[in-house]
Amino acid sequence: MRKxxxxxxxxxxxxxxxxxxxxxxxxRRLGYLDPCTAPWRRCAIDALRIxxxxxxxxxxxxxxxxxxxxxxxxxxxYTNFPSLVRGLPYIDEVKPSAAAPFxxxxxxxxxxxxxxxxxxxxxxxQVGVAPPDVRPDCVVDRAVVERFRAAWRxxxxxxxxxxxxxxxxxxxxxxPDGNWTRLIERLAKFASVIETGLSGATDGAESGSRxxxxxxxxxxxxxxxxxxxxxxxxxPVSAPLHIAAAVGTPAVVIVSGYEHPSNTRYDGNVVLYTxxxxxxxxxxxxxxxxxxxxxxxxxxxxxxxxxxLWAEIGGTAKAAE
Length: 321
Prior knowledge:
Layout: H1 2-30, E1 44-48, H2 53-58, H3 60-69, E2 74-78, E3 93-95, E4 105-106, H4 119-125, H5 142-151, E5 159-163, H6 177-187, E6 192-196, E7 211-213, H7 220-229, E8 232-235, H8 239-247, E9 251-255, E10 270-273, H9 292-295, H10 299-320
Parallel strand pairs: 1-2, 1-4, 2-3, 5-6, 5-8, 6-7, 8-9, 9-10
């Protein structure tokens, strides 16, 4: 019975999303000729995002701008990651994706790529707004942040969060695992490395006491807090990058040719990117060019950038504590 209800819920959600997509395309093409159809002209703005954590966070600039322009409207957001956004001042109510009404506006960038704009700007353009700031917002449990800082207090600084892989949806963003092993070994000579994400074949034991393995050991709220507690983040364009931007943690970003760096660039971050003729590809099938865009980025380069970033932010980070 439970499985049957779950299947019915997924079917309904798929129907709602597809109907919303077609309605939005028609409305955008016609310029919202009917004043009642524009999302900001309704009594409540129902917005829906079905997607990964980073996608949900990139919706927050749009919701923030909609509320700024229309403070008298109630903003309801439908997502499968409610703890990320429940409590943000411009979102009045957070509900599961499956509860989205047929009139919900899907916040998407997929139909607007490839683009040279930040994906948060592409999302906003789908509903006719342009947020002045693309940095996302995220709810942070400060008590958990302090718990991590206390646990790491005796570890050498900087405290570096690393995350190796992206979702299964975008395997062409993943830097080779052997490069990660070499990088972690090099980082552990001058820093403390805290690895997050999913468990993998490499256990990191060779990095000694300066390596902490949190893979598959944190809840989403704990992941957010750990990134907020760290000095900086190193990883691909994935959920931790957008979390880091939301909580104000600088990042060294290893960008593949899947997308353009401008699609996910945040102020204060350092981007490592190799332009190749096939980029941006937005390719989800195996790369025919053996990920030459990523293989051109070496662990030594990432280490050098990390050292430079810490030299720039280290004094500020210590003074803030």
